[in-house]
């Protein structure tokens, strides 16, 4: 019998698998950079359209380039008729992330430019612009269908974030709220080799289409340990809205070994730089309502950090999901649409990574991902086990 030392499942954390020029994280210093630019500067000076251009093309656009890019996005917001017809047939209680993932292959059936067997950078960029344009429409149209409301046409006079809120809610958002959502989209646009981005890159390394890569990324994002966490955070806040002793509830969660959604991050050890912007945004939005999400969140955070400190776990801090959930809620976005809103933003990063993966070298030949597993199953020698026929078992 052979001796097998079992490997620890680390989820590939700390394992470098490819070069990338798209984004960078310094988890010890709390730094996030897109294409060389600090997230703080992009939030202060950029827009989601400009940030999307930066991620896809690698440089900041000129005014003319940004205008052309924005007009391309606006022109592609309308969904093909067969997509809407299909959505009308789907169960109204289906999970929105499942709807979104199922819709992307439908878009691939009527691409504006047909992808060939060999990847073409120009066509991939055009398809990317189409997905950035249409994912918000998919989310909004599905919500209108499932709630029995008339579908609204995109408004070419509205920018990306404002148009999504219009198509979703049926009313034009105020400038401040639309601006806040645009910042949220910038903050979520890319985050190096997270689970969904890695899924997209792995899939297209087989020379599958950009649409296949984005569909795979959506599947990965839907999980509660990735994009689905913001929904779970909001469910937790709603549950605790009338809880008199939040601190005791937090202590009970941690004592039982249950996960406290929105706390901790695989990379950031001294703080997620996106959280501060979202907290400020949440407090500003809350002034317009009578809710108390900021206060509840603050009590959860303080209680959790105190207990973590007692255990010596000083690197477990609030993450972007903890801070973004109440912001989306205050914008009137339904809880189960919070992860799809994450996808509306992250699709820009996914497409940038897919294109980078497809054209990893001058010949456009991606390295097929093929990791190796250590076999720990039955072992009867190098020739395998003896097969015993059914009648003699």
Automatic annotation (TrEMBL):
Keywords: Transferase. Pathway: Carbohydrate metabolism; tricarboxylic acid cycle; isocitrate from oxaloacetate: step 1/2. GO terms for molecular function: citrate synthase activity. The active site is at residues 265, 321. The keyword Ribonucleoprotein does not apply. PANTHER family: CITRATE SYNTHASE, CITRATE SYNTHASE, PEROXISOMAL. InterPro entries: Citrate_synth-like_lrg_a-sub, Citrate_synth-like_sm_a-sub, Citrate_synthase, Citrate_synthase_bac-typ, Citrate_synthase_sf. Belongs to the citrate synthase family. GO terms for biological process: carbohydrate metabolic process; tricarboxylic acid cycle. It comes from Desulfobulbus oligotrophicus. This is Citrate synthase. It catalyses: oxaloacetate + acetyl-CoA + H2O = citrate + CoA + H(+). The keyword Transferase applies.
């Amino acid at each position: 019998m052979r001796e097998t030392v079992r490997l620890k499942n680390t989820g590939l954390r700390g394992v470098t698998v490819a070069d990338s020029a798209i984004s960078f994280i310094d988890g010890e210093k709390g730094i996030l950079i897109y294409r060389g630019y600090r997230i703080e500067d992009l939030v202060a000076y950029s827009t989601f359209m400009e940030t999307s251009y930066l991620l896809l093309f690698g440089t900041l656009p000129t005014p003319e380039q940004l205008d052309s890019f924005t007009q391309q996005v606006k022109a592609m917001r309308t969904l093909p008729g067969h997509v809407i017809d299909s959505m009308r047939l789907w169960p109204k209680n289906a999970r929105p992330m499942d709807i979104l993932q199922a819709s992307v292959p439908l878009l691939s059936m009527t691409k504006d430019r047909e992808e060939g067997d060999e990847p073409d950078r120009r066509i991939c960029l055009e398809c990317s612009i189409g997905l950035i344009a249409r994912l918000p429409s998919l989310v909004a149209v599905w919500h209108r269908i499932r709630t029995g409301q008339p579908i609204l046409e995109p408004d070419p006079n509205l920018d990306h974030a404002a148009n999504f809120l219009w198509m979703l809610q049926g009313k034009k958002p105020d400038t401040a709220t639309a601006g806040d959502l645009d910042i949220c989209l910038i903050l979520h646009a890319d985050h190096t080799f997270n689970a969904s981005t890695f899924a997209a890159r792995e899939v297209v390394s087989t020379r599958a289409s950009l649409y296949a890569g984005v569909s795979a990324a959506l599947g990965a994002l839907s999980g509660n340990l990735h994009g689905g966490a913001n929904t779970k955070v909001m469910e937790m806040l709603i549950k605790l809205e009338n809880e008199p002793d939040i601190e005791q509830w937090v202590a009970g969660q941690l004592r039982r070994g249950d996960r406290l959604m929105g706390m901790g991050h695989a990379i950031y050890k001294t703080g997620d730089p996106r959280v501060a912007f979202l907290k400020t945004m949440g407090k500003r939005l809350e002034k317009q309502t009578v809710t108390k999400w900021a206060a509840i969140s603050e009590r959860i955070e303080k209680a959790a950090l105190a207990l973590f400190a007692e255990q010596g776990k000083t690197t477990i801090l609030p993450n972007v999901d903890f801070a973004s959930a109440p912001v989306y809620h205050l914008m009137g976005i339904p809880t189960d649409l919070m992860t799809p809103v994450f996808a509306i933003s992250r699709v820009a990063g996914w497409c940038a990574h897919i294109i980078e993966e497809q054209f990893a070298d001058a010949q456009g030949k991606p390295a097929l991902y093929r990791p190796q597993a250590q076999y720990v199953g039955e072992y009867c020698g190098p020739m395998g086990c003896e097969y015993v026929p059914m009648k003699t078992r």
